[in-house]
Specification:
There is one protein chain. Helix 2 crosses helix 7 and helix 3 crosses helix 4. The chain is mostly helical. The radius of gyration is 17 Å and the shape is globular. The chain starts with a helix and ends with a helix. Helix content is 80%, strand content 0%.
Length: 132
């Protein structure tokens, strides 16, 4: 099985495991939220694609850019899942004062990255409720 197929299989299994855990422990009245979480992989794919496009723009071959973007997302998610640190603490831990990472974080914050993600989730949630 190719690495790409393995990643796809692990992604699907991870999403299904997360959804199962959420659905099993959340009251029925918030079911729309679980359904919304099933949509989040699309947003993660968009983020990974943006990482790959940026890497390609900086000169990395497209195939390698996609591979590295996916491995980075998987690695960061795995580290976050296995850590006791808050997500913002993990972010801060990899930002050096005056460094390239904090400059990139500043750029994302200036572009309202968190707000855009929050709006996407809220929009998906509202649409789920509307669809019944």
């Amino acid at each position: 099985m190719s690495n790409r197929k393995k990643i796809q299989k692990l992604t699907v299994l991870s999403v299904l495991a997360a959804i199962t855990a959420i659905v099993a422990f959340v009251p029925l009245k918030t079911l729309g939220l679980e359904i919304t979480f099933t949509m989040i992989p699309a947003f993660v794919y968009m983020f990974a694609d943006a990482l790959a496009l940026a890497a390609a723009e900086c000169g990395l071959p497209r195939e390698k850019a996609c591979e590295y973007a996916l491995k980075t997302v998987i690695g960061a998610a795995t580290l976050a899942a296995d850590s006791d640190m808050h997500l913002s603490e993990l972010r801060d831990a990899v930002c050096s004062p005056g460094g390239a990472t904090i400059a990139g974080v500043h750029s994302l914050e200036s572009a309202a990255f968190k707000g855009a993600v929050m709006d996407a989730i809220k929009t998906a949630f509202d649409k789920t409720k509307q669809l019944g």
